[in-house]
Design brief:
- The chain has helices at about 25-40, 60-65, 70-90, 115-120, 140-150, 185-190, 195-205, 220-225; strands at about 5-10, 45-50, 95-100, 110, 125-130, 155-160, 165, 180, 180, 210-215, 230-235.
- It has about 240 residues and is an alpha/beta fold.
- The chain has one domain (about 5-235): Acetylglutamate kinase-like (Carbamate kinase), CATH 3.40.1160.
- Helix 1 links the parallel strand 1 (about 5-10) and strand 2.
- Helix 1 (about 25-40) crosses helix 3.
- The longest helix has 25 residues, at about 70-90.
- The protein is globular.
- The two termini are about 25 Å apart.
């Protein structure tokens, strides 16, 4: 049973690593695609924003001395590579998908047009947004929040490596307290490293709920879309 009519799924580039140290593991792309296909076939409209950290991370390159804007543009190209890989996996899984890019790449992707994206969703197609916002200095978390608001998503599903939001990193602090539900304001005040500040602030100002869940669990995306509270933590006003 579906809980949401339309979702924005935020995937980090790292989820595509699988057993690889770098790049894209086709087997992992297929597993992710299979879950998304299941969700789409059950009637939920699915839009996706993907990071590019498995290929290139602009902020890291900038701290190493590269011009920040140049590094960020390179990171946007990495997200386009991941988007194309996921589109291919989705189509092979039997799901209809489209990649839209915030940077014009007419030979490989549609340019981002809000009304066209919504039309694709209404027709049951999975829409993958690549190249972030198209601007440097903005993370893919911010891009995900922006796109979620633009398409009128019911919720932003944020895929991570942990099963929700904790007061401290549970990998370092096993006894760290988990927040099953927390406000956008408290995420900001407590300086919880869930999403960047601009993304959380934008979501708070527009009352966009965020669900943070562990992508490594079996059927994680399916369970998140069903609203399984035990699968993660809600950020909600």
């Amino acid at each position: 049973m579906k809980k949401y009519k339309r979702i924005l799924l935020k995937l980090s580039g790292e989820v595509f690593l699988g057993s690889h140290a770098y790049g894209i593991d086709p087997a992992m792309a297929r597993r992710i695609a299979a879950q998304i296909r299941t969700v789409a076939r059950r009637g939920t409209q699915v839009a996706i924003v993907i990071g590019g950290g498995n290929i290139f991370r602009g902020y890291t390159a900038a701290t190493g001395g590269m011009d920040r804007a140049t590094a960020d543009y390179m990171g946007m190209l990495a997200t386009a590579m991941n988007a194309l890989a996921l589109e291919d996996a989705l189509k092979k899984a039997g799901a209809d998908a489209r990649v839209q890019s915030a940077i014009e790449m007419p030979k490989i992707a549609e340019s981002y047009v809000r009304k066209r994206a919504i039309r694709h969703l209404e027709k049951g197609r999975v829409v993958i947004f690549s190249a972030g916002t198209g601007n440097p200095y903005f993370s893919t978390d911010t891009a995900a929040t922006l796109r979620a608001l633009e398409i009128g998503a019911d919720v932003l599903l944020k895929a991570t490596k942990v099963d929700g939001i904790y007061e401290k990193d549970p990998a370092q602090y096993p006894r760290a307290r988990k927040f099953p539900r927390i406000s956008h304001h408290d995420v900001i005040v407590k300086k919880l490293k869930v999403m960047d500040l601009s993304a959380v602030t934008l979501a708070m100002e527009n009352r966009l709920p965020i669900f943070v869940f562990n992508m490594t669990k079996p059927d994680a995306i399916v369970r998140a879309v069903q609203g399984n509270k035990s699968a993660g933590s809600f950020i909600i006003t």
